[in-house]
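Posting here for the record, re: iron/sulfur cluster.
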Amino acid sequence: MVMKKFAVTPGFKVGGTLFKPQQLAVLGSIVGPDAEIEMTTFKQLYVAMEEERIPEVQEQLRQAGLEVHPAGFVSKSLITCNFCRGAEDAGLDIAQRLDEIVADREVPSPLKIGYAGCALGTSEPLIKDIGVVKMRDVFDIYIGGEPKGIKASLAQLFMKDVPEEKLLPIVDRLISIYQENGKKKETYARYVKRITPEKLHELVISSSIAAE
Ligand code: SF4
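Prediction output follows.
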């Protein structure tokens, strides 16, 4: 039997990333006895199951209100905080729009993008590849966090006080530049060190000017 992996998440809302009991019941009842379900560190469940049944199972999961994503070398769905300050103050709407542009893009090494609705940063945005922190009405963007290994390090501030209308294009461009320039299996932290934050800044700014 050929087994293959994909990711499942309920998405996020005020309260966080919350599965409904019936969604977990559906998941457990349709994947088959040989399937394995793994809890990842990035708020997705990984399901490894018989490859030929995957399309029908994914369809049922979508009908149960779950999101289905690819596993492996892609940018993951947005890893958010719990929006405890409420949808408006913590920026639920912009986080949802950000999720739409960041998830499921093929990249040289799996890419994790974090979002926090305030400077308390309970979703740990500074140990993500790209971290976005809402600071009242503007956003700070951090890059190159490395949570793994004995040389783990925090992300560094890349852009400060970014207005809402610029946030999505900048993060979109950061991912595109990584797609174009990252080497195969090069983690984002290593890539940022190699290319340098200053050069990345130049590339992002020049592309924004070109787009205006
Ligand atoms: S980051 Fe801020 S808004 Fe989000 S859950 Fe934590 S404390 Fe609340």
